[in-house]
Amino acid sequence: MDGTAEAGAGDAAREGAAAVFSAIEAAPAYRLVFHAIEREILEGRLRIGDRLPTETELAHRLGVHRSTTREGLRLLEQSGLAERREGRRLYASLPRTDDLSERAQRALSLSRVSFDGLWRLLRALEPAAAALAAERIDAETIAALEANLARTAEAVDAGRSVTQLDLEFHALIADATGDAAWRLAREPSAALLFPANERMLPRLAQSGARLLTAHRNIFDAVRAGDGEGAERWMRRHIDDFRRGYVLAGFDPDEPVSPVGAPENGNETRRPGRIEARPGEQGGDG
Amino acid sequence: MDGTAEAGAGDAAREGAAAVFSAIEAAPAYRLVFHAIEREILEGRLRIGDRLPTETELAHRLGVHRSTTREGLRLLEQSGLAERREGRRLYASLPRTDDLSERAQRALSLSRVSFDGLWRLLRALEPAAAALAAERIDAETIAALEANLARTAEAVDAGRSVTQLDLEFHALIADATGDAAWRLAREPSAALLFPANERMLPRLAQSGARLLTAHRNIFDAVRAGDGEGAERWMRRHIDDFRRGYVLAGFDPDEPVSPVGAPENGNETRRPGRIEARPGEQGGDG
DNA sequence: CTTAGTCTGTTTGTCGGACAAATGACGAGC
DNA sequence: GCTCGTCATTTGTCCGACAAACAGACTAAG
Question: Residues contacting strand C at CB < 7 A?
Fold first, then answer.
């Protein structure tokens, strides 16, 4: 605890031009704890799914207090490398893609993104994804897409919102590429862009039906292994989306509005405690 | 403290069919602390850049102990919504894109991605990004690109590796779109794919020079506002990249090897402490 | 008057220990 | 055999303490 900083104090003759003085790297112990465990996981000594040692044991092994260990564990937890199962225990895990997407989405929604920027991104991605999907799709994803189409048809008939199903359809296409990179690349933008549908629907007759038809065409091509067709239909679908947006009277150059405020509930759902503290201190300053 | 869990214990007469029993959402207090602060930031009561209250004050206001507060702060920290500046204090911040990218990249590298999948993703993205960049680029990014090209030329002359500069060039193009979504979408994949260059270089004569020429062509088109040209040159560049990969004798269907093990240093660099504890407990089991 | 040192109150990092509640394993009882 | 208490383990939370780092204010030196 006495890393006395006696670095560049010496003679005042010249400002050492050659000396580099790369910034000293240091970190509080809780961060070292985090990295120690992270490393165990990344280098395979702790395999995905393995239960982490007890807090007490970790503390003991790392030579720090349990509180410090716990702070490190929080970092690990939030980084996605540790995950709670069955309520309490922590298990080593891979950061989940949807988790990453969600965060990216939030970051995006807080930054400046225009409808047009997002749209052009997806116009580049989605057709290519559809083409690749046509080459690689498996039976399982086909089934999932069929189910999605069925539910979309229902929703359209019933006049319900199709936004969620729309998002799911496109996500499934991305999944069909079999490559996590595709999903990761498109998800945040799609989640921000496609809900714009919600605002168009009331203004455009038949937009639900059009969407369904488009999805069906895309699906048929994908299932048939017709990459080119899938790409073409998807591109039309995306173009159509933009057209609808403009027709409905929106300005594609405007920033997209952050959809969905941060909800409260969504915790890791464990039975037990309901509130942190029923009500003890109000807040006095 | 005493949220005694007396949920569904009652009479065993009938299994309430009508009752819904939506899963009880509960969370430990440290998580509630996290969400409380998160919410303050997301809803604008704490603005980006604002200094967070003292740990003690937070603890007091939220009615929990400082230790608990600190655990919540670790979550916040790792989520990117709080950031240390000047060493200690925590400030509200936006999750940084490069941070998100880095995590996404790690997640990708741990999952199954093939050269081909990544390549096709970037083949869809990069040309479109270049086209958009040509419409929107500003003087600053032009300057950055020029600097990048100059350094690339140097590196090629000197026979040094151009991988980092290559990555930077493409990232700058994405930046030039002015839309964070583009950078976020391509960064993780690019970071995994482009370093493959490193392996090709020794096997292919002139590949550095080819890369430089391609970058120059792309840049010229972008600067001239020639979207179509930029797109075309970029597509060629990406195609060329794949051709080189195959020529060099690699199989595009193989999974990409995780590049770069998790390094040690990269902390938040704060002067002061060098080690958590110089050497107090060795580890006895 | 600027520069360098000194002092002081505040804030963070870490530690020690304590205890209630939840969990999981296990053996007793219907 | 299945259900129900019992008990040890583990997590969540709290209390309190103290050293180190830091931000400022203030003072001595050039």
Answer: A 28-30, 63-68, 71, 86-89, 270-273; B 1-5, 52, 54-56, 66-67, 70, 88-90, 273, 276-277
CA B106 to chain centre: 9
Nearest nt by C1' to B54 Cα: C11
Domain identity same for B71 and B191? no
What nucleotides of chain D have any atom within 7 angstroms of a protein Cβ?
Answer: 9-17, 19-23
User: Do A41 and A130 belong to one domain?
Assistant: no
Distance CA B44, CA B195 (A): 40
Using one digit for the tens of pLDDT, what is the confidence trace for B153-172? Answer: 999 988 888 889 999 999 99
Predicted TM-score of the model (pTM): 0.74
- Cβ atoms of B230 and B218 closer than 8 Å: yes
- B51 within a domain of the structure (yes/no): yes
Q: Where are the beta strands (DSSP E) in chain A?
A: 82-84, 90-92
Shortest-distance nucleotide from B68 CA to C1' = D13
Give the pLDDT band (50/70/90) at residue A21.
low
Average pLDDT over residues B2-16: 36
